[in-house]
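User: Can you help me understand a structure? I only have the sequence.
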Amino acid sequence: MKKYIIAEVIGTFIIVFIGTGAIVLNEVSHGSLTHVGVCLLWGFGVALAIALVGRFAESHFNPAVTIALIIAGKFSPKRSIIHITSQISGAAIASIILLLLAPKDSTLGSTLPSVSPWVAGGIEIVISFVLMVSVALTELLNIRNRVLAAILVGSAVTLTALFAGPLTGASMNPARSIAPAFISGHTEFLWLYILAPIIGMIAAVPLYRLKKADSN
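Assistant: Let's start by predicting it. Here is the structure, written out as tokens:
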């Protein structure tokens, strides 16, 4: 059990540190990294986490993914609290380190919408659904190679971030939003970034029934 906890902490840390770190770096350098560069680093962070520690964990690194997989019958509810706590802990460590590295940054890469909360919520639901579809496809297509799975999911993160980043910050991950929000003090829209990814990913759960139907 300990290796799964450590893997979830490390994997989520990698994703949040690289992703929010890219946002902070782009702000500090006055946009030299560019929006595209930030999105590519987000996707790379996700792919790297899956490829590096996927063999030791289920490669969730996201509370919304964990909840969706529980509903799909692919993950034990008994382990959910430990998993989600580990994910938030990994994200928190990443945000604390970023605070130490960039103490003058006011948001630390927090997700803050540039559109109305309801529009932002709708966008987050859709892109979270797309991300969960990519996660489900790794099983539906019987992708056993961690590198290929990492590329598929990482690409989904990059593409959705390219579209939604300027509008919502493209969270798709409650842990990714919780950590910088609390540490920077920008919690005003946190409810949106907790609920919307969960709703979007639960909406993709019926895809797992296709696997069962093919096996019958």
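Now, to help you interpret it: The chain has a mean pLDDT of 93. The radius of gyration is 16 Å. Let me know which part you'd like to focus on.
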